[in-house]
């Protein structure tokens, strides 16, 4: 026999022969896989999936489908190459199911939840806590969210499945940090990611955005589970009456306790510039170190808001940025501090546009507050309610042709309706960096079918203000609780 020749073997012909020839170790492996698969089918609540058990039986026991044909090849290169392909496919299938039904990693890209979660944190998001969402676009590459580096889609639009969530450990609780698909991310343009598509439409007009491909790129629609991932804190639950008064959230007219690391924007004037080591002691990142460019010509305006001007007309440095209460206490203990004061709150572009004329980030919802939709909740559809609930009714719940008529009545499927009953629960999400967070105050409610999961642990964290070998890895954050205010 030649050195590289593989001896010929006689394949078992009948089912009984194949079963009899199966080694005990393969029976053990099949039993473990079958038990896990059956438990998964019970969890899915779809008995038709048990048909796949016959496929698993063939893979491990009978071998009628020649998945491992390459092992009998006389070509050594084929055997080696296919062994790698086999291992990669197996790993991708395993990753697919872990990412879809257990959890996955997620990077914090912005400062909206500083200082609870930091820019550069890599989180493990637990999907089992609220119950994993069955993929609505089930055919996708598991290591890429919505597109490959070359810009092509990493998923197929069809087949598509309707929304279904498996049973979880508990429901979303007030104060939870939650990862979800960006509700206003159903439509994007490929060259501009911020602000979102609908803000671009408001700013530049629909015709300009759709036709100026050179500036904005192509228009792309994304299904729910392929929209960008956001992470915020759930501050309003289904059915809550929600409003903000002077920066304090009120739920059903009761004030909600502020998270420990909540931040608001402040002006603070120092007698001399703040040095690098002091910034680091204060815990203020480079992105939040904003020195105002003031000249002697600004002295009257500066004095008008109570800031100090030197006798020679120069103005001691004035900074603006987000601060926590602990940062404020550290600043107040510094002899260099001249004055610190909260900045006025912005009022531009809040949701819903037609109702929020006199609302701000710190005073939101008006005197009456807004009611967050809950599954089974019925509302009377007057023009005010339509302004607040139009997007949930028309976009999230599939009534694309619904509109408010000139007669002040709402029409769904061409028929006038006086009331509407919601099909899903909704949530109001906000960042802890309250004056620097694009959240529900700008784009409205988050539907339950957009919920991904809750961060569990910080896997690793990188400080963008430092080099890798000079404190660039935040070792103290590895495996840190990613939802500390819930403990």
Overview of this structure, please?
- With 487 residues, this protein is an alpha+beta fold.
- It contains twelve helices and 22 strands.
- The protein has helices at 15-21, 24-44, 52-62, 76-101, 197-204, 206-211, 213-216, 276-282, 299-304, 325-332, 383-396, 440-443; strands spanning 103-107, 121-126, 177-181, 187-189, 219-221, 229-236, 241-245, 248-251, 254-255, 264-270, 290-291, 318-323, 337-342, 370-371, 378-380, 403-404, 410-412, 415-417, 419-421, 426-430, 446-447, 451-461.
- The strands form six sheets. Strands 1-2-22-3-6-20-21 form a seven-stranded antiparallel sheet. It has a four-stranded antiparallel sheet with strand order 9-8-7-14, with no helix packed on it. Strands 11-12-10-13 form a four-stranded antiparallel sheet, covered by helices on one side.
- The longest helix is centred in the first third of the chain and has 26 residues, at 76-101.
- The chain is globular, with a radius of gyration of 29 Å.
Keywords:
alpha+beta, four-stranded antiparallel beta sheet, seven-stranded antiparallel beta sheet, 487 residues
